[in-house]
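re: ur msg from earlier - yeah i can do the zinc ion complex, just paste it... oh wait u already did. ok heres what im feeding in:
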Amino acid sequence: MTNSPNPPRVVVTTSWDDGHRLDPKLADLLDRYGIVGTFYISPRNIEFAPGDHLVPQGVRELAQRHEIGGHTLSHQRLPLISAAEAEAEIRDGKDEVEQILGAAVSTFCYPRGEYDASHVRMVKDAGFGLARTVRRHSLGVGDPFEAVTTVNAYAHRVDVPQVLRMADLNPFTAGRLFLNWDDFAIAWFDKCVREGGVYHLWGHSWEVEARGDWERLERVLQYISHRPGVEYVANAALIPSEN
Ligand SMILES: [Zn+2]
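and the outut:
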């Protein structure tokens, strides 16, 4: 690669959802490669067994090197509960995490990526500046209250069309990218370095564990780390400035 006088701006951010006891293991991996993460914490997540929640002291330790964001109080599916309940889930989740931290949080993530326009308004009214969705395959943020991402640390079957496009319809390359989400994540990073943009990798520590994907994740983090000129930031850095 030649040195261009004006290389495209490349921003790397990562986010990790739910507030699981394995989040510190994931944070250690990020630290090893100098990559910043935003951990979206649902402090009373109903989908976890009680012993699987990240305890408040663990949240505070994560916050020393990474960002903490809101993810509702108990990880209910927002479209399936009443407006009043949804508003309380969003606000009370923010309040509880802020009490744990003794500091304000500014970013939010919709549980399961499920929301409608009323929830966007609730998130704005609660004082958040950015809300992440689960939409993927973008090198831009889009609407900050429906922020899109690049890749999920997980093998999605629905990625077939994207994989084929990334592989220039080469079936051998497509097969490799389809079978290995780490290769897919790396191909997206290469595209981001070439074209510029925001590379947003996200996932769940419990899912990495359940699928035995720690080595794949480390391979991706190592590949995208310590690149000259690349900015490594938390999700809050994607909040548009007010002027
Ligand atoms: Zn979640």
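cool cool. The pocket of zinc ion is lined by residues 17-18, 71, 75, 111 (CB under 6 Å). ping me if u need the other ligands too
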